[in-house]
């Protein structure tokens, strides 16, 4: 398969590229920093090199400014939005200009789409969007991608917290946990929607290869866990204590609006992936973290 990838050099993108190369796909990766030395991957620095996407069977867009790294000042909010909307618009334009468009377009999104949910049930892809800033970004991001849906099969990847020791949120957490200086956030009751990096990549390959799949998909494990449960489970996997607590007011003082990403309750369920026949390799947090803390890199 000939695949164009935007965002192929990030945490998820690198793992995806390795998996695609391993199975024999030919990749064109939009990046200013080539990271792989293989004949199966071509790097381009500007999407303007292409006026259309006739040359590709699939397009994957994972590009976007990291949402948690900087305080959400007005300028940063604009940067977060434009980094997602701008590249998505350019991709959609090239799909629309193609006489023989790609067969499938996987477009990034996030579980931030849903905002803070009542703790009454497990929520599926049918759940309405939330109202805060992260939800607004995801809504606009998805809306731009949807403009290509009349030309190609579109899959929206509403991604939860992606876990692997090589990067992402878990890599940032591990130093404090290893020092025994971690603990629950707020009251710890808020559900965190998570997925292993391994399953996230597998799910993307699954959607690429299954023409019956389209629309929005929750990229989360079947077992959402509370923050308190997550904290205790990771501490146990490391054989370290985790007795501290970060009060909600303190988190809001330090992080501002970004605190909502840690405090929002998101009991989400991957209904559409499961109904389509996808099988999770890492459906439960405890055995996954236990293995992750005692294994060599597998992606």
Structural commentary:
The protein is an alpha/beta fold. The protein has a single domain, classed as NAD(P)-binding Rossmann-like Domain (Rossmann fold, 3-Layer(aba) Sandwich). The protein contains ten helices and 13 strands. The protein has helices at 11-22, 74-96, 133-146, 168-178, 197-209, 227-238, 248-255, 260-263, 271-275, 285-292, and strands at residues 2-6, 26-30, 41-44, 58-61, 104-110, 153-159, 161-163, 183-185, 191-192, 194-196, 215-219, 225-226, 244-246. Strand 4 (58-61), helix 2 (74-96) and strand 5 form a beta-alpha-beta unit. The longest helix has 23 residues, at 74-96. The protein is globular.
Overall structural domain count: 1
Which ranges are low-confidence, i.e. pLDDT below 50, for 5 or more consecutive residues? none
Name the assembly state: single chain
Specify the helix fraction band. 25-40%
Structural class: alpha/beta
User: Judging from the principal axes of the Cα atoms, what is the shape?
Assistant: globular
Q: Tell me the series of helices and strands, N- to C-terminal.
A: EHEEEHEHEEHEEEHEEHEHHHH
Strand content: 15-25%
Give the overall average pLDDT. 94
Domain NAD-dependent epimerase/dehydratase: 3-212
Domain DUF1731: 246-291
Pfam family, one: Epimerase
InterPro entries: DUF1731, Epimerase_deHydtase, NAD(P)-bd_dom_sf, SDR39U1
């Amino acid at each position: 398969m000939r695949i164009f990838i935007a965002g192929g050099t990030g945490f998820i993108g690198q793992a995806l590229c390795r998996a695609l190369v391993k199975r024999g796909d030919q990749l064109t990766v939009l990046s200013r920093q080539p990271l792989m030395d293989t004949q199966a991957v071509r790097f381009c620095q500007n999407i303007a090199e292409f006026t259309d996407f006739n040359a590709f069977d699939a397009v994957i867009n994972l590009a976007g400014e990291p949402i948690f790294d900087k305080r959400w000042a007005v300028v940063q909010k604009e940067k977060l939005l434009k980094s997602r909307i701008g590249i998505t618009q350019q991709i959609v334009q090239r799909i629309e200009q193609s006489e023989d468009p790609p067969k499938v377009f996987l477009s990034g999104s996030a579980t931030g789409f849903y905002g803070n949910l009542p703790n009454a049930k497990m929520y599926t892809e049918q759940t309405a969007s939330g109202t805060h800033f992260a939800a607004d970004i995801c809504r606009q991001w998805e809306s731009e991608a949807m403009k290509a849906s009349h030309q190609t099969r579109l899959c929206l990847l509403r991604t939860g917290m992606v876990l692997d020791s090589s990067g992402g949120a878990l890599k940032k957490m591990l130093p404090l946990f290893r020092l025994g200086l971690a603990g629950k956030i707020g009251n710890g009751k808020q559900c965190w929607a998570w997925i292993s990096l391994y399953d996230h990549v597998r799910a993307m390959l699954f959607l690429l290869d299954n023409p019956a799949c389209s629309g929005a998909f929750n990229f989360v494990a079947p077992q959402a866990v509370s923050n308190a449960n997550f904290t205790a489970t990771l501490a146990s996997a490391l054989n370290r204590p985790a007795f501290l607590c970060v009060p909600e007011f303190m988190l809001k003082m330090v992080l501002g609006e970004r605190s909502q990403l840690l405090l929002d309750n998101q009991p989400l369920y991957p209904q559409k992936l499961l109904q389509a026949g996808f099988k999770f390799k890492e459906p439960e947090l405890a055995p996954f973290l236990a293995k992750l803390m005692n294994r060599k890199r597998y992606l």
